[in-house]
Amino acid sequence: MWLALDTSGRTSTVALTDGRQVAAEVQVRRKRMHSEQLITHLDTVCELAGRPAIDGIAVSAGPGSFTGLRIGLATAKSLAYVWGVPLVGVNSLTALFYHYQGVPTPLCAIVDAQKGNVYYSCGYWKDGELKLTADSRIAPFHEVAARLASENESTLIVGEAVDVFARDIQEIPGLTAAPPHCRYVRAGAVGILGETEYTRRGADDPMTLAPLYLRRSEAEVLWEQRQCQQ
Predict the structure, then answer these.
(1) H-helix or E-strand containing 33?
(2) 81 close to 176: Cβ distance less than 8 angstroms
(3) Angle between helices 66-83 and 33-48 (to 10 degrees)
(4) Residue among 218, 214, 221, 219 at smallest CA distance from 64
């Protein structure tokens, strides 16, 4: 049984997965829920599943919200260290694709990176395997959309940033926005992906696993600007 959690976006989601099944899952979308409610969500999921023994932990390592990623990783790393179980950090964009296993349509996952930019990844499922055509990049959304439109394929757009760019997506031929309940990372998918990654490459070191940011934080940019002005 693996404990899985994702705090990469505005949704807090925790699950217990067993092989290819989701035993229990909690998903809550509220402001400031990660620091205040993550431990409560973890306890709730374990209670719902009968408090089973935990064999491993899977956690979204990014890209996504800087603060959310730090909270999720710190929690997962602490639990893995205390419990002495394997820890696997997974790509949050790849986890989004795991909602759509077996779907033949090309997929593009987008997460808001602020100022009109998105973190994005593209891929498709073939013979039960995920094939990535663009892996964890950052670019203005209009550039990503133009590239997808030029490929002349019907593409399903998933991810939290669909909320931001839904109207633009509707106006671009060939692009379809995922329905609201299918746009966000779910811990169940994180857990299944984590188990798959553990079988393929083993565990991560809790002492060295770091968030995948892809860009500098706004605080770092502002600090550098102030230093240049002095």
Answers:
(1) helix 33-48
(2) no
(3) 40
(4) 214
Q: Is omega for the bond preceding 63 within 30 degrees of 0, making it cis? A: yes
| Same-domain pairing of 86 and 49 | yes
Mark whether 117 and 148 lie in a shared domain. Answer: yes
Question: 3-class SS at 48?
Answer: helix
Give the E-state strand segments of the chain in sequence order: 2-6, 11-18, 21-29, 56-62, 87-91, 107-112, 117-126, 129-140, 155-158, 175-177
In contact, 211 and 61? CB cutoff 8 Å: yes
Q: Which two tokens stand for residue 15?
A: 């699950």
Condensed to tens digits (0 to 9), the pLDDT of residues 19-36 reads 778 999 999 887 666 777
Residue-wise pLDDT for 147-171, tens only, equals 999 988 899 999 999 999 999 999 9
Residue with tokens 């394929």: 153
Q: Do both 177 and 191 map to the same domain? A: no
Residue 86 shares a structural domain with residue 42: yes
100 and 177 share a domain?
A: yes
| Angle (deg, nearest 10), helices 162-170 and 141-150 | 40
SS3 content of the chain, % helix, strand, coil (to 5): 40, 30, 30
β-pairing, 129-140 vs 155-158, is unpaired
Domain count, the chain: 2
| pTM of the predicted protein model | 0.90
Residues pairing with 15 in the sheet? 4, 25
The parent domain of residue 29 ranges over 2-91+185-226
Residues 87 and 192 in one domain: yes
- Domain containing residue 105: CATH number: 3.30.420.40
142 and 194 in one domain? no
